[in-house]
Amino acid sequence: MKIPAFTKTHMLKPTPKERLTARPVVVLLLFFLVLTVTELGRLLLAVIATIAIPNSLAGDTSMLISLFATTATVAAVLVYCLAIERRTPESLGLIRRGAVAEYAVGLAAGLGLFGLPVLLCVVTGAISLSPAESMPSFWVVLLFFAGFLIQGMSEELLCRSYLMVSLSRKWPLWVCAVSNALLFSLLHVGNPGVTAVALINIFLFGLFASMLTLRRGSIWMVGAVHSMWNFAQGNLFGIPVSGLAGSPSPLVAEMGEGGRQALVNGGSFGLEGGLAVTAVLAVACAIVLFVPTKKAEIAPVQEGE
C-alpha cells in the first residue's frame, strides 16, 4: 500500500555537490550540539533581561528575548547546511514556488488546528474564556507574534529540514518521521507541569509536522502551523504554552481543576497536556498520513531519479 505522506519528493533527493553526512550518529550529535549551544545562549539572555529590567516588565521582555533568540538556531541550521554541507535551499524545504500561499494557509491551519481543542474544552466545560481585565498593548502582542514566527520556524528547520532530511539518507522515511517526532517530544521533558499525556501530544504534533513536511515537500506550511499554534495558545486564548504561562492576551482561560476536566484541558501544562488536543492531533495525523490528493503537492521524485 502506497502511503501519500511517505512519497519521496525532491526535498529528499541528494544533489551532486552536497557533502551531507550519511552517518545517523553524527547527524544526531550535530543536532544536540546546535540545540545545546543555542539554548544556553537563549537562557543566558533571558537571565540577563530578568536581572536588568524592572520587575513589571521582566516577564514579557524575558519571553520576547527568548523567542527572538531562536534566530540563532535558524542561522546555525542555514549556515551549516548551505555553507558546510553545500545543500540546496530546496533540500531544506525552502521552496520559492508558492511560498507565500503555503505560509498563509499554514497560519490559518494552525489557528484552526488549535481552535478545535479550545472549542472542545469550552463545550465540555473544561475551560472558560473571558476578556482580560486590561487589554494588552497591540504592539506587544505584535512583537510576540513576530517572535513566535521565528521560534516556530527555528524548530522546524532544526527538526525537520536538518534532522529528518539528513536521517533519510540512511533510514526509511517513516523511521525518520517517528524518530524526529520522538526527539521533539523529549525536548519538552523539563517543561513545567509536563505529564505523560503532554509528551504523547507533543510527539503527535512532531509526527504531524514531519508528515506534513514530507507531504508538501516544503517547510513553509508546517513552520507557519507551528508558529500560529504557539501564538494562539498564549497570545489569543491566554493558555500556557507547553507549561509556560504569562503571555499577554486579550482573553483569559480559566482551567477547570476537577480530575476529568484536567484530563481534558491539560491542567497547568495547558491544552497540549490534555485529551482534547490528543483527539485533534490524532485525526490530523490520520488525514495527513492517508488522505490522497489529486496531484502531488510538490513534484515527487520519479522512479530511477
Please characterize this protein's 3D structure.
- The protein has about 300 residues and is mainly alpha-helical.
- The protein has one domain.
- Helices cover about 60% and strands about 5% of the residues.
- It contains 10 helices and 2 strands.
- Strands 1-2 form a two-stranded antiparallel ribbon.
- Helix 2 runs parallel beside helix 5.
- The longest helix has 30 residues.
- The chain is globular and about 60 Å long.
- The mean pLDDT is about 85.
Keywords:
single chain; 305 residues; mainly alpha; two-stranded antiparallel ribbon; 10 helices
Summary, kept brief:
By secondary structure, the protein is mainly alpha-helical. It is built from 10 helices and 2 strands; from the N terminus they run ααααβααααβαα.
- Ends distance: 21 Å
- What do the pLDDT scores average to? 86
What structural class results from the helix and strand content? mainly alpha
Count of helical stretches? 10
Biggest sheet strand order reads 1-2
Strand content: under 5%
Order of H and E elements: HHHHEHHHHEHH
User: Overall 3D geometry?
Assistant: globular
Number of domains: 1
Question: What fraction, in percent, of the residue positions are helical?
Answer: 55-70%
Estimated radius of gyration? 19 Å
Give the biggest sheet. 2 strands, antiparallel
- Assembly level: single chain
- What is the tally of beta strands? 2
Low-confidence stretches: none
Secondary-structure blueprint:
Blueprint: H1 24-52, H2 55-68, H3 71-84, H4 99-124, E1 127-131, H5 138-167, H6 173-186, H7 196-216, H8 220-235, E2 251-255, H9 259-265, H10 275-290
Antiparallel strand pairs: 1-2
